[in-house]
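Explain my protein.
***
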Amino acid sequence: MKLVKLFKIGFLKLISRRKIRPLPLSKSPKFLLLMHQNIGDMIVFSPLIREIKVAYPNSNLQVLASNNNRVIAEENPYIDKVILYQNKWNKLFPLLIDLKSINFDFVVELEAKVVTKVILMLRIINPNCILSVSKREGRYGLDPAAVLPYDYYTDDKLNHQRDTSLDILRLINVNVRSKSYDLFYSEKNKEKALKFINYFNPKDILVGLNITGSSNEKRLINSDIFKIIDGLHSLSKNIIIILIHMPQEKSFIETLITFENSKFVIPSYPTSSILDAAALVDSIDLLLTPDTSLVHIACAFEKPLLAIYRKDQAAFDAWHPKSKDSHVVFSKESNSLKSLDVDEIISKCFELISTSIKKDL
């Protein structure tokens, strides 16, 4: 095993050799942004997309997206072309050869850690210049500073991924006009949300409750879900709790609706795509959710937000909500959302409703 690790370290160092190239600035540069990560990443990095396109309106701005976040990229008017990332090398290699033929002026790499596969991809694409966010994690026990394969890097003192990505603009002499998130959805998504919302009384305070996160560790436990439902209802009979869910969660969501709470706990329509969820979040009054992409969706629409996080300061520093109307509650556990203070959750929801929502409790 030690020999295998030594080989991997040697290979990584070999492909990481670099010769810093000058910035190929022009009025119509060709950009490729590597964004084949998660849905939340695409939203958090959206200001970078917009600011590049505004600064270089004649640029050709392409994005390499994943299956998960491609629908967000496809609705973004600042993106000229969305390319679907292929995970397996037999499909990825031909794609990389096609990208190489475009002769990009800039490729922007946004991984917070050193990834050997990404370095290889960029060696094949071979753009004129590679701009990268600073790395927080190395590889195979190597310090990130020992692996610097790209041309220019952002300030390593920045913490939040939004700010780190926007520092790319400094490298190409562009001033940041706005740090706000962008998220666009279709008229079809909007119509579905409005049809659902119109069912309620305009005086109702619509609280969206999402119970799932991006992993099991970020999921609310059942006992806390019922406590949160009861606590919200105790604040006001005008509060309607909408259980946001995907189609595969429908059966479980129905178990949370009892005879006693059925008048004020309503399942949302199944959000079959992230844009369905986005349109719904944009239409409610308050969102309560664990750490997941819905946190960043709420920030994009400046929606009052109560976000629930594990006790993981590093992750929180990098991905916490960027919104003036948000509160955060932490679990006492680093690997789960157990040991939550539900009273604190209800108290902070009350504060958000009182100060940020123009409806009577």
